[in-house]
Design a protein that fits this description.
Length: 202
Amino acid sequence: MASRKKQLSKRTKMKSATAKTPAASQETVLPLLTGAAIQEKIREMGRQIRADFPGEPLLLVGVLKGAVLFLADLARQIPGEVTFDFIAVSSYGKEAKSSGQVKLNKDLDSSIEGKTVIVVEDILDTGLTLEYLLRVLQQRKPKNLRVAVLLDKKERRLVDVHADYTGFAIPNEFVVGYGLDYAERYRNLPDVGILSLPPVSH
Ligand code: IMP
Ligand code: MG
């Protein structure tokens, strides 16, 4: 019993910031990106964004909730005038893939007309969420509209959208940590890992 526990904790080399709840006790997270690697990449992204828009006020639009940690760290790597706003969307189940139906759950607080907007998203998967968001935001006449994503699962793309700034291209695996969740859990991990669920018993 105790040795099994030990084995498991050895396999999950990542520091877990959470005491495991019953639901999570059978799940393991395999390391993919360390917090240090993420921070280093974000420093580069911040520099690049500022270099592309020197002296320009930037509005970061974070997509709730997954992008909160990324936005917080990215904002601190962009010198000069930066403001934030947040938007929340949900998709009608991953099964209804081709329908591409996305719903706006929380709109921005302020107008983006004439502003340079950077949409900040945790992960680009099918691309349906981002396609919807860009369509909605473009109608509001921003001066510039760009996209920064931390992670990109290119293989999964169903629609032709791309990010202007990408942290890491990752394999087609379900990942958690650093804002990304599984059933709302794991967002608080400082690293990103691949979630491994227990085998389904019959
Ligand atoms: P898309 O519309 O399929 O591109 O999905 C984007 C959203 O799906 C992201 O903002 C995440 O909330 C969620 N998502 C996609 N892949 C993952 C994953 O591997 N882990 C956690 N959430 C994911
Ligand atoms: Mg998200």
